[in-house]
Amino acid sequence: MNRSIWIAGLASLLCFSQSMIADVHADNWAHWRGPTGNGVAPDANPPVEFDSRKNVKWKVKIPGRSSGSPVVWEDRVFVVTSEPASNPNRSDRLPRLNFKVLCFDRGSGKLVWDAVATTSTPHEPTHATNSFASASPCTDGEHVYAHFGSRGLYCYTMDGQLVWKRDDFGKMQTRNSFGEGSSPTIEGEMILLPWDHEGDSALYALDKRTGKTIWKTDREEPTGWATPLVVPSDDKRQVIMNGDTTARSYDLETGKELWSCGGQTQRPAASPVYADGIVYIGSGFRGAFLGAFELDGRGDIEGTRNVVWHLDRDTPDIASPLLSSGRIYFYKGKSGLLSCADAKTGKLFYSTQRLPGLQNIYASPVAAGGYVYLFDRNGSVVVIEDSPTLKVVATSSMGETVDATPAIVDNEMFIRGEEHLFCVAK
Predict the structure, then answer these.
(1) pTM for this one?
(2) Is 372 inside a domain boundary?
(3) Are 301 and 248 in contact (CB under 8 A)?
């Protein structure tokens, strides 16, 4: 082979490898909604039947509280938590907490390292079902990032060395002191940080290697808990954000708003999902809206052809929808009433079906191996076929509260319970 051609080919391959690292490592679960951003592990095959003992490869006790989801990269599993820094005094309005990142060996569950990002007393309380460390971490295989809201964003090496931190964003004032919880998203050389609250809201794009601000876009939005989703389009990559007043799209490179659409409901928590040129955004507290949007619109697209379809009842609240195999699955509000619709048309295959043991939902549904996995706050687990016909194939319980969305890699599922981190495997 001609040496110059070989070198050019190698250079192209290296460039491709760097730009597509998330696709090369598609078997990792590096973000709380998985490799596709939709809650799906395309090549995984975890067990269908499991509980707190059956098909449990290992489980470990997790100190403190967090509803942040685990993320997995190769042989490492990362979680965050907040635990009391000392014995609380009865007169203390709020506890002094250690905000921590923990890394476990995927094979054995052994703790590899833990790091205290910061120790502080929260400036405001949180909802009784929330914690002070609700945002999920994320990783690109080189660094792991932990966002503790008003306590800051922290970047670590995979071996637990602090690289940089940003704790200068201010203090969030959340609606009704419900607490914080939006997770960051990595895209290319950026890490996107949502900052919606009762004060000055914004979306930040930071240099993931230094933490320096690349751009900041102000948002006329009150408190929200959704996570940004980056999607491709014909001319530029877009950052999709849910919102209390409107759903919006931003240019990834500049932060400029591209399009928006009203119709959302109060305190949005569900994050967007995307496939085949369509993005799906919904919310379901004190109202209902779930819409499918084409990406080439500009400005206010409400009432235009760019709104492919929308639903105005029984839409998701805290749990994000699942987009799998051309179907979109979602709960009614926080209830366990499940609906499934055709992603292209919005036509319902079934609506608000009650499933055994599902009553109060925080964790988002996930899919793998032809099945959909559903978790209730009471620890109940229901597994259904990933199909247009509702068919329950297994029911069980983890024996403790499950608020965090599980992570799925290969034949394993990592479940963050209130007290333990479980690895279930065939």
Answers:
(1) 0.92
(2) yes
(3) no
- Residue 177, classed as helix, strand or coil, is helix
**Residue 28 in domain:** no
**Domain extent for 171:** 40-425
- Looking up residue 367, the CATH number of its domain turns out to be 2.130.10.10
Pairing outcome for strands 238-241 and 111-120: unpaired
CB atoms within 10 A of CB 347: 10
Q: How many domains are contained in the chain?
A: 1
Domain annotation covers residue 29: no
Is residue 30 in a domain?
A: no
Beta carbons of 273 and 234 less than 8 angstroms apart: no
DSSP secondary structure code for residue 40 in this structure: B
Separation between Cα atoms, residue 386 and residue 161, nearest integer Å: 41
Please report, as a single letter, which amino acid is at residue 176.
N
Return left, alpha or beta for 176; rule: phi > 0 is left, psi -120 to 50 is alpha, else beta. left
**Residue 313: which of 294, 337, 297 has the closest Cα?**
337
Whole-angstrom distance, CA of residue 83 vs CA of residue 99: 7
pLDDT tens digit string along 91-135?
A: 568 889 999 999 999 999 999 999 999 999 999 999 888 899 999
